[in-house]
Amino acid sequence: MKNNKDEWTIVIKPKSGWFDISLKEIWKYKDLIFMFLKRNFNSSYKQTVLGPIWFLITPLMSTTMFTLIFGKIANISTDGVPQFLFYMCGNAAWGYFSTCLTSTASTFTGNAYLFGKVYFPRLVSPITSVIYGLLSFMIQMLLLAVSMIIFAARGEAVYPNIHMILLPLLVLQMALLGLGVGIIISSLTTKYRDLSILVGFGMQLWMYATPVVYPVSQAAAINPELAKLVMLNPVAPIVNNFRYAILGCGSMDYKYWAISWLVTFVFLFFGILIFSRVEKTFMDTV
Amino acid sequence: MANDVVIEIDNVKKQYRLGTIGGGTLKGDLQSWWARVRHKEDPNTKVGSKVYAKNEKFMALNGVSFSVRKGETIGLIGGNGAGKSTLLKLLSRVTAPTEGEIRIKGRISSMLEVGTGFHPELTGRENTYLNGAILGMNRREVDAKIEDIIEFSECRQFIDTPVKRYSSGMFVKLAFSVAAHLNCDIMLMDEVLAVGDMAFQKKCIDKMVSVARDEGKTIIYVSHNMQTIRQLCSRCIVLRKGEVIFNGDVEEGIGIYLRNDEVTAKLFNDFTDCHKFNFLTDKVMMDSIEVLEKEICRFIDDERIRFRLKFRCLENVEKLSFRMMIHNNDQVVTATSVCYNFMSCKKGESYEKIFELDVTPLASGVYKVLPVLFEINEIGGVIDADAVYPGLVFEHEKTTVLDWRSKLYGDTALDDMICIE
User: Fold this and answer.
1) Is B399 helix (H, G, I), strand (E, B) or coil?
2) Taking the domains of chain B in order of start, what are their residue ranges?
3) Is the minimum CB–CB distance between A27 and chain B shorter than 8 Å?
4) Which of A23, A138, A161, B97 is the most buried (most CB within 10 A)?
5) Could you give the CA distance from residue A260 to residue A189 in angstroms, rounded to a whole number?
6) pLDDT one-digit tens code per residue, A224-248
7) Residue B57 in contact with residue B9, Cβ under 8 Å?
8) For helices A30-44 and A124-153, what crossing angle results, to 10°?
9) Coil vs helix vs strand at A71
10) Do A31 and B25 touch (CB under 8 A)?
């Protein structure tokens, strides 16, 4: 007689292991990720006059706003780089990280209606958010490139350098860190809704703790200890190095970047750990 | 053949905790935890209630085991809270069991609620792809089926219009079509066929039957509609309070479920503390119906039901009439018998009347009766004075060549035909 055990395609058991995420299964659902991306893209700009042009307008507007408030009114130094480029660069990096985090954070609560009806690997949702965020990030990068050419043509100090090859690594880290923190929050919000309120507010605070509207050198000028503290924030070295690679302002930092990677992996590890615990039964608690 | 088994459910239990889960907020949980650490009283315990019921648990499923073979169409029935939907949720992996194991062979898809995952802004075609992907199909599979889906949905004209512009009927038609054309081996369905107009419902059921029969798909179907269970299913599983109480023949299962669910046939039916309908004038009140000259409430062939009706008169009624509305297993009125203007009654008096009801045309089965006392006003309108449901439950047995119990021939057996020439 054949051993029946091996033939079962799915075995549903009460408790799963701690690290029960099947990447192979997610790959099988790649079409779903693609469809979700298409859905997000199509639905967000349907019935709007400007359509996908909004992808350009929002970063332009916020960069202009930053330039006006932090650059002109508050007169914060930008390490000699044109203010507009400085803010656009920081804004793009922070924006991507923040999108990854916030959209991932609402995975369970936002998709409860869907998750409660059908099964698909729950990680598909946050992965979709992260990839979708990448789209608007890329558009911002194009915008930045165009702006840089314009500024360079006018003879302003813009020094894109060899460190640009590290950009994919930096973007990857933004996504992973956002994903890690996001899925921790999403897993906890199934039980504690407090966190979903905290996210919006917390992200604002976190932005000011990150050198987005100011260079690290500004913090160092006040107190060198303060600069160290700022750089311990895992996002700070990412934004700092990102800006250095593109605009050549400030300095490349490897020590704090290494720490930041460590923190990223820790968050990601615990995130997936909690996520895989929660995803099986979250429908009972959400 | 043991190798045919595609689903094996092995002693599955699903437990839910009663009451709100946790304090609901992080603060609440931290408070409770801090109180426990200091051995103080939990500030979040409700005043007057016992210590927070950690053990207060509810077993939605309590040791369910059965297996399904390839190509079977299983009807899953049971009252509300019997655990049907919980079982489907476990099978579709929406949530995990507390104990036990479910083993599945092949691809499983659920159409628990049609239209889940439809995005209002997307067109019918885009939604078809999206929904297909959500249900586990890849692009090529949808490509291969899209023509069938559009054809079946009868929405070709609107397929490139956003679904938010659809009528609700078109919406469910399209949603059903996507789900019905899924590439899977096992399909789970929960009451989904109760959508669309009658013609489309019939089309759906025919499709499901053909899917089960011709494509060899296995179907697990949950419904409260016994008629569709009869049409669709080859086997019936009855759940009650999280346990399987019957597993086998469809008609027998339906009988067990309905008998279990409802009041049993008894000779004396007292209405003193019965639920009354609120559209009644209450000029008269029924007190009881008692079946006479019988040991059990079962009538064979041409036996007639003789019963005594007791009622009180609260206001004068000139012409009182009485009717018995006979309902079948599916709570549908099958037949009505009337006794017009049998008396007039005076305020404050109590009466006892004996009636004889002829139920011989009814097919074999259990029936529930809605007795109604009513009056006919000057312009011939019927005004109901009092009604109780079920006022009487009885069983009718017909011994003929045809098996009337199977409901294949309907609820009423008309007089035999005569060949004239």
Assistant:
1) coil
2) 61-261, 268-406
3) no
4) B97
5) 25
6) 888 888 889 999 999 999 999 988 8
7) no
8) 60
9) helix
10) no
